[in-house]
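Risk register update: the risk of archive-format incompatibility is retired. Evidence:
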Amino acid sequence: MENIFKEKLKILRKEKRVGQVELAKELGVSKGTISLWENGLREPTMSSLIRIAKYFDVSVDFLIGTTED
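Archived output:
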């Protein structure tokens, strides 16, 4: 999951033109957590995945690479 997730998170964040700090505030996590996710050093919890999916208006399946939409 992590390799696909980290790439999708980076792409979605850049497409929305939101920085790591702003995204962290929106999701209720630290900027360091966003960095760890984007570098593939940590995987998000299910509750974090759901918050990320809602924030970017995508599915959890999309985030983890089990579907393309």
